[in-house]
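Re: that chain you flagged

S.,

Sorry for the slow reply, it's been a week of failed gels. I finally had a moment to sit down with the sequence you sent. For the record, here it is as I used it:
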Amino acid sequence: MGRLDVLHTKHPTYGSRKLVIMMQREGYEIGRKLVRKLMQEMGLYTIYPKENLSKRNFKETIVPYLLRNRLIQFPNEVWSIDITFIKLYDTHMYLTAIIDWYSRKIMGWRLSDTLETAEVLMAVKEAVKKHGTPAIINSDQGSQFTSTEYKALLKDLQIQQSMDGKSRWADNIMIERWFRSLKTDLIYINEFHSPRELRKEIEKYVQEYNTVRPHQSLGNATPEAVFQACFQIGA
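Prediction finished late last night. Pasting the structure tokens below so you have them in one place:
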């Protein structure tokens, strides 16, 4: 699972067929059926140039994508939320993270050994309590985000729900880019032996990302500086 995650991160357009070939070249005795099963379990999706309309289930739970051609003009206008697989030394965890589209600031995150919806709900509640309520939260079509509990929480908080097209990785590009940076900069070059150790290092990474690292897309400012500046101007 760890190696599959690395290959998918480097080659997000590769489907299970190509990933099987690459893993077999590296000596893994693995077939396409198992790769597809693991990708589904890990929440890995191949990037397609357009929406894949086949085999869409539970249409009544899917909501429209609200961000196409939208100009984001201020913090807390749009957040993105997603979940990614994180390998530990002898097991794995799942990281839920939320990013603000305007400032690129990580608004909240939670590390868990399960994919339960409760972890997503807690991530949203904590982020809102700390940073205020966004107008829109965008996600993919994962079961956590189509659940009754998640939809009810956003409704109670008066947040509009936006959702990617099926398998459209680019629709949630902000959080996907951050996950790739996190894995390249931190996860793949270290070997973490416990959830506590991993949680501590992710906390440090998020702090540095938000407050120290310059962003070219932000005029080399930090996400925290951009986020705070807008509220100071408004005041």
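What I noticed first: Helices lie at 2-10, 16-25, 32-42, 117-131, 148-156, 173-187, 195-211, 223-234.

Talk soon,
D.
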